[in-house]
Specification:
The structure is a single chain. With about 130 residues, the chain is α+β, with helices and mostly antiparallel strands. The protein folds into 2 domains: about 5-35; about 45-125, Sandwich (Immunoglobulin-like). Helices cover about 25% and strands about 40% of the residues. The chain contains 2 helices and 8 strands, in the order ααββββββββ. The chain has helices spanning about 5-15, 20-35; strands at about 45-55, 55-60, 60-70, 75-80, 85-90, 95-100, 100-110, 115-125. β7 and β8 form a beta hairpin. α1 packs antiparallel against α2 (about 20-35). The protein is elongated, with a radius of gyration of 24 Å.
Length: about 130
């Protein structure tokens, strides 16, 4: 049986029985479920991504980083670790310079409840062959 038909039958049953308050609450929840709307603060779909340009590249190189965060209303804190001992707390930190080698860059995002979300990439600053 089609899910929409089941939803309509249940909606009719609840609307024909029960208090006005319960009818309004059920209708609200049914519309949210039907439309695929989630509640704010639902951390099931949080996405944290690091954008690094260029990557890879030739050493020495200047890399621009940007945090892409989805599913959080407002991250409270960002903590970047650039793999060479340097750190930052900005959404788009200033360009970072790398000598030759591979560096593991980690971004940790902490929400208002203290929950942590992490993303990581490897920056490859290839040594030029002379």
């Amino acid at each position: 049986m089609d899910g929409r038909l089941i939803l309509h039958r249940r909606l009719y049953l609840v609307l024909s029985l029960g208090s006005d308050f319960l009818r309004v609450v059920f209708l609200f929840l049914a519309v949210m479920i039907y439309c695929g709307i989630g509640f704010a603060g639902d951390h099931g779909d949080v996405r944290v991504e690091i954008i690094a340009v260029p990557n890879p590249g030739k050493a020495p190189m200047c890399v621009h980083f940007e945090a892409k965060i989805g599913g959080l209303e407002e991250p409270i804190k960002l903590e970047w670790s650039f793999g060479d001992g340097q750190e930052s707390t900005k959404m788009a930190p200033p360009p970072h310079y790398y000598a030759g080698g591979k560096y593991n860059v980690v971004l940790e995002v902490i929400d208002r409840t203290g929950k942590k979300y992490t993303a990581g990439i490897t920056v490859d600053a290839a040594l030029s062959s002379a």
